[in-house]
Amino acid sequence: MDAILEVVALVLGFVGWVMVGVALPNRYWRTSTVDGNVITTSTIYENLWMSCATDSTGVHNCREFPSLLALSGYIQASRALMITSIVCGTFGLVAALIGLQCSKAGGENYVLKGRITGAAGVCFLLQGVCTMVAVSWYAFNITQDFFDPFHYGIRYEIGEGLYIGWCSAVLAIAGGACLTCSCKMGTSEKYPLPHQSRGTVYSGAAPSRSGVATSTYGRNVYV
Question: Are residues 32 and 43 in contact, defined by beta-carbon separation less than 8 angstroms?
C-alpha cells in the first residue's frame, strides 16, 4: 500500500508542478471587466510580466513591464513566490524519484529512501504553499480594487491563470501530504519497537551445552 500511495503522490506532485509552469507565463491573470461600460473598444489583460490589449478586430498588442522597482509590492512578491514554487517542485520530483520504494536509484537502503521521500513531501508542500499564497494575494488585490468605490481606474476580474494556480497548489499540497504520510507509515511498519518480536518461535526444551537438544525431560519440568 505504501508503494501505491507514493506513486499516486508522485503523480499529483508532477501534475501540480506542470500546472505551475503553465500558470506562470499565462497572460490572463486578470482581465478588464465590462461591468458598467457602455462601449468597450478593447480588452486589457495582465499577468506578472506584461500587460496586453486586444481591440474589437482581434489585434493583440503586448508590452512588458518597464521597471521591476516601479511595480506594486504584491506583484514582485508573487513573482518570487512562483519562481520559488517551481524550484521546490523540481527538487521534490527528483527526490521522489530517488526515494520511491519501487525505484532502484537509491539502492536498498530503505532508511535513507524514507528520509528522501519525506524531504520530497516537504518540497511539494512548500511548492503548494508558495503557489497558494502568490495567487491568493494577487486575487485579493483584484477584488479589493474591484469593490473599492473610490477606485476610478480600470477594474479587473480574476483570470484563468489564477484558477490554474489554485488547482496546482491543491494538487501539490495533496501530493506532499501523501508522501509524508507514506514515509511515516513505512517507518512504523518496517522498524518495530525493540520489545516486539515477530516470527520468533521458542522451543519447549533448552539446548544443551554440546549444541544438541536433549530429548529426556525430568519430572520437575511439568507442573
Answer: yes
Print the SS3 string covering 94-125: HHHHHHCCCCCCCCCCHHHHHHHHHHHHHHHH
The three grid cell numbers given for residue 143, joined into one nine-digit string: 477584488
Cell digits of residue 152:
476610478
Q: Please, is 218 exposed, middle or buried when counting C-beta atoms within 10 Å of its C-beta (0-12, 13-18, 19+)?
A: exposed
The matching CATH number, chosen from 3.40.50.2000, 3.40.50.150, 1.20.140.150, 2.60.40.790, for 2-196 is 1.20.140.150
Residue extents of the structural domains in the chain: 2-196
Question: Is 137 exposed, middle or buried, given 0-12, 13-18 or 19+ CB atoms closer than 10 A?
Answer: middle
CA 67 to chain centre: 31
Residue-wise pLDDT for 133-159, tens only, equals 999 999 999 998 888 788 777 888 999
Is the Cβ–Cβ distance between 189 and 152 less than 8 Å? no
- Closest to 169 measured CA to CA, from 84, 91, 99, 50: 84
Task: Quote the cell numbers at residue 82.
Answer: 512562483
Segment among 28-32, 66-70, 209-213 with least mean pLDDT: 209-213
Q: How far is CA 53 from CA 32, 33, 42, 104, 106, in A?
A: 10, 13, 6, 51, 51
Q: State how far the Cα of 134 lies from the Cα of 141, in Å rounded to an integer.
A: 11
- pLDDT over threshold 70, residue 40: no
Contact 179, 118 (CB under 8 A): yes
